[in-house]
Amino acid sequence: MNLRFCSNTARVTSRRSFLQQTAAGFGWLAFSALKAQRAACNKSTGNPLAPKKPHFAARAKRVIFLFMEGGPSHLDSFDWRPELARVGGDAKSRYLAPVFDFKPRGESGLMISDAYPQLAQQADELCLLNGMQTNNPGHHQAVVALHTGNENFVRPSVGAWVTYGLGSEADSLPGFVTIDPIVDKGGAANYGSAFLPATFQGTRLSSAARGLPNIRNRTLSGADQRKQLDFVQRANRRLLKQDASNPEIEGLIESAELAFRMQSSVPETLDLSRETQETQRLYGLDDQRTARFGTQCLMARRLAEQGVRFIQLTSNGWDHHSKMREAFEFKATATDKPIAGLIADLKQRDLLRDTLLVWGGEFGRQAGPDNNGGRGHNNKGFTMWMAGGGVKGGLRYGSTDELGREAVAGKMGTHDLHATILHLLGLDHEQLTYHYSGRDFRLTDVSGTVAHDIFS
pTM here? Predict the structure, then answer.
């Protein structure tokens, strides 16, 4: 048997040649178009996180998302329903009356409950979104939808989309940081990048460890690490030359460089001992009840100062099915002073005007009692709020019905919320797309209405 042709691998055609030579070359034309589009998406200064121009003038440069996991009760915090107070009673009644008194706050007269005495002093900075809605009353689905815009499929998170669209102004820190995120109800998918390049996914930090575990190399000096990294990067860049439009390779190169820089930047940025005692008290670091979330908030301010584009903080445990007053008061106390301190600190540093704060959970609570004086899940009407970043302070936008059961005015669904956040950052939610699996994807899917009425 003549094996000459079997061993002559030089005659084996390449995939590109095959596409060129078959089907009248139409396969090659399609491939060329996809390759050009891929190259255009990845065209930059060589750093995927380099700052990018917004679609139009932005009101905000960065976002701090204060996520209250579990679904905080709007009826006992930021949505005053006089009729519920009139007809409601205790745990044995048909409706549960608000468990805290409400009072008009600030010059705007926003009605905020006594559960937030410190935050109430910042009422004129808050824009209450009382007409929020989401599709699903289940924790897992609602949490994932809030973070990614889709409760059924794995999609990039809001922070990943924002960082993809705008890059980052932080040279030595990630563009997207999440502090103490939840590990269930979607877990890492809530700050993941899905089909977007991995460069844009969130970096998880710990408030307890003040940063990242194992941030320092215990065996190699900085100089030796640099030599080692340079050796690896030379190989990576050789590979990149063979496929210059490959975002995965470029992302790997930049991730390695960023990780090296973070060894010095993260400990320095998150060293809260550099703050004055007055500032630490402002965030409640001197009180055991508020110290943990206060640490998150102070870390967020320091990250914002360094140019991090999207920062998420998490307070869990707001799923109050019983003993609403005691349970809600405990969580509100832990977060009230830190959040008020964050707003005041950003304002005095002239950062609040271009920093968008977003507060809220995955849904709200029912008007009726549930399990010994608590409240069940309510996805049909609840409250979130924004502050700074180009929104009107002292504004109540939207409302629920007289008992707080369902949004009836100024309705904002999840896609509407995301479209509004992107717009404040100078991004058109319909133009911010990524081509994957044969079509263009976007955070807001095929819907989303911007709430222009809340803009200052």
Answer: 0.87
